[in-house]
């Protein structure tokens, strides 16, 4: 299979350890194949002679061999797990790295829980395939090959009888395996869907409880779990078919050997020891097939997981760097949009945008909800690529810059700031890893976050919980603003950054922002128009187009969309 060929890439670095494991499996298979010969020797050569001394000597030798085999088995299993962990680490790291490179559109199309299932559930499923599935499958296969060679050397007629039902069994195994692989893939898919539903519900647990919709969320989860249960029962049915077929074949073959072997013993063409040895070989031949049928289930689940993992690897990032991109060391911050058009799928979001923002200039973007304001600023750090036109920074098309250069010089404060679990200090260091304590405190003071931070029990070392759940929305927003200040980018984007603050806090932060705006290009999206009246220019956007540009006073005098929005907001505040 193509997916297994691709997986070989992760095996190559550990070929030496895999070679040792393979050698130990060959030794184990040979020892297994020699055990029936021991049965023949004891019955034909020792029991009939009545030699206790020879019996003790042979069994002592056999015990020593089995002890050595047990030691080899211990080494092999240990190496197996070691190699498996190395491979899973490499695969998990590469998969996670690839996910970070994928564009935002991929995450908009896929539920977070399903993505997490690929990284965690599917990767862990491979451990069973590597440790239990592939290695033991190879050992059982080697045992079968060794047994077939031995039985043909002993008695070719009995060997043919032994293998007469083999083709039928092989057809059953191939048929069931193909169906089991598809079922296993569907089961993994359902597990991802279950994780997605659960992650979404747990992430919005307040909304679930406030609308009293826990029963609805439970039903959504249960519906998928019910489908997963049916698939599990179907897979169990396939396993039952396979095991029953193997068990029936083993028993019928044993009966045939006892019948034909008994005839040969009575006609003195075969010894009792050879017949007993042959019956033992039959058990040794079909027992691996039983185990292989079980291991095949693990293997098929692993292959299904591999297919799902490589589906992610096959996702190509929409936003990619060109060959030999440019890295500007001293960005000034001029941003220019020329005839920019942008679409989300078939929906046109921005049309023919032309705008030049000079270094140190503060530009406000205003317009109704859904006008395209956030889409416009999301194009600057290349979260998405435009369909037509160009966006330049300091005269260079952003598609010619390294993504690191572009995003290193761009800072964003969003309407709904997302903080990570950990301490306040760790979140602030996310903006600048090598920041000193003095820098962190200065940034927090500038964002008017320092006062509330020091009042917390652990100060800057206070754990804030997942997504900053232990902080108020306003506190989270001030920390997010402090992160932007600490990063000190040349291009700053504030997307409703002060919308969750009370009037007093907003007034304090507005003073800090006035300082922050200096010597950097700033784009501000604000719902409260009173906060952007001092912007150098206000760009009014409606239905994806720039409909007006000017100062606050100029736009009021034009009595256009901006004036209507401002008067409507002023009237609602007065009322």
Number of domains: 3
Helix content: 55-70%
What is the average of the pLDDT values?
83
Biggest beta sheet attributes: 6 strands, mixed
Outline the secondary-structure elements.
Layout: H1 2-11, H2 15-47, H3 52-101, H4 104-109, H5 112-154, H6 156-163, H7 166-203, H8 205-210, H9 214-266, H10 272-313, E1 335-344, E2 347-357, E3 362-366, H11 373-378, E4 388-393, E5 396-397, H12 403-408, E6 410-413, H13 424-429, H14 437-446, H15 450-454, H16 473-487, E7 491-495, H17 503-516, E8 521-525, E9 537-542, E10 545-550, H18 552-558, H19 561-574
Parallel strand pairs: 3-8, 3-9, 6-7, 7-8
Antiparallel strand pairs: 1-2, 1-4, 4-5, 9-10
Helix pairs in contact: 2-3, 2-5, 2-10, 3-5, 5-6, 5-7, 5-10, 6-9, 7-9, 7-10, 9-10, 14-16
What does this molecule look like?
- There is one protein chain.
- By secondary structure, this protein is α/β, with parallel strands linked by helices.
- The chain has three domains: 312 residues, Up-down Bundle (ABC transporter transmembrane region fold), CATH 1.20.1560.10; 155 residues, Rossmann fold (3-Layer(aba) Sandwich); 69 residues, 3-Layer(aba) Sandwich (Rossmann fold).
- Helices cover 65% and strands 10% of the residues.
- β1 and β2 form a beta hairpin.
- α3 packs antiparallel against α5, α5 runs antiparallel to α6 and α5 runs antiparallel to α7.
- The model has no long low-confidence stretch (mean pLDDT 83).
């Amino acid at each position: 299979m193509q997916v297994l060929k691709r997986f070989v890439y992760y095996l190559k670095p550990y070929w030496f350890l895999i070679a040792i494991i393979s050698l130990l499996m060959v030794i184990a298979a040979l020892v297994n194949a020699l055990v029936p010969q021991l049965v023949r020797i004891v019955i034909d050569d020792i029991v009939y002679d009545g030699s206790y001394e020879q019996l003790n000597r042979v069994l002592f030798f056999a015990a020593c061999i089995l002890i050595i085999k047990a030691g080899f088995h211990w080494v092999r299993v240990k190496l197996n797990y070691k190699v498996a962990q190395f491979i899973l680490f490499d695969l998990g790291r590469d998969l996670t790295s690839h996910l970070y490179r994928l564009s935002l559109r991929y995450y908009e199309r896929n539920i977070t829980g399903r993505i997490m299932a690929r990284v965690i559930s599917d990767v862990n499923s491979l451990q069973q395939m590597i440790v239990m599935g592939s290695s033991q499958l190879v050992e059982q296969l080697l045992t079968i090959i060794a047994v077939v060679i031995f039985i043909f050397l002993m008695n070719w007629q009995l060997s043919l009888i032994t293998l007469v039902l083999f083709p039928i069994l092989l057809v059953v195994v191939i048929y069931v395996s193909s169906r089991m692989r598809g079922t296993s893939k569907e089961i993994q898919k359902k597990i991802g869907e279950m994780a997605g539903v659960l992650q979404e519900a747990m992430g919005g647990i307040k909304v679930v409880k406030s609308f009293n919709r826990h029963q609805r969320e439970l039903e959504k989860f249960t519906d998928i779990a019910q489908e997963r249960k049916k698939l599990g029962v179907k897979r169990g049915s396939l396993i039952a078919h396979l095991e029953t077929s193997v068990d029936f074949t083993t028993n019928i073959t044993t009966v045939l050997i006892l019948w034909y072997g008994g005839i040969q013993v009575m006609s003195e063409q075969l010894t009792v020891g050879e017949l007993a040895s042959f019956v033992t070989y039959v058990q040794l031949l079909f027992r691996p097939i039983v185990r292989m049928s079980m291991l095949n289930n693990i293997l098929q689940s692993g292959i299904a997981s591999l297919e799902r993992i490589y589906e992610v690897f096959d996702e190509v990032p929409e936003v990619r760097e060109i060959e030999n991109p440019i890295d500007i060391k001293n960005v000034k911050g001029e941003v220019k949009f020329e005839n920019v058009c942008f679409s989300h799928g078939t929906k046109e979001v921005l049309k023919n945008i032309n705008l030049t923002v000079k270094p140190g200039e503060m530009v406000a973007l205003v317009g109704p909800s859904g006008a395209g304001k956030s889409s416009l600023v999301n194009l600057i750090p290349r979260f998405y690529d435009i369909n037509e036109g160009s966006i330049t920074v300091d005269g260079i098309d952003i598609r010619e810059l390294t993504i690191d250069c572009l995003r290193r010089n761009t800072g964003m404060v969003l309407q709904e700031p997302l903080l990570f679990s950990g301490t306040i200090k760790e979140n602030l260091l996310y903006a600048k890893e090598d920041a000193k304590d003095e820098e962190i405190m200065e940034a927090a003071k500038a964002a008017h976050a320092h006062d509330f931070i020091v009042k917390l029990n652990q100060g800057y070392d206070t754990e804030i919980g997942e997504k900053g759940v232990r902080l108020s929305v306003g506190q989270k927003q001030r920390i997010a603003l402090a992160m932007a200040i600490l990063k000190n980018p040349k291009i700053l984007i504030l997307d409703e950054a002060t919308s969750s603050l009370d009037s007093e806090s907003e007034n304090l932060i507005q003073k800090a922002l006035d300082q922050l705006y200096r010597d950097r290009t700033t784009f501000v999206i604000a719902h409260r128009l009173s906060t952007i009246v001092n912007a150098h220019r206000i760009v009014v956007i409606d239905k994806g187009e720039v409909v007006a540009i000017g100062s606050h006073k100029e736009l009021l005098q034009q009595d256009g969309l901006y004036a209507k929005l401002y008067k409507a907001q002023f009237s609602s505040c007065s009322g």
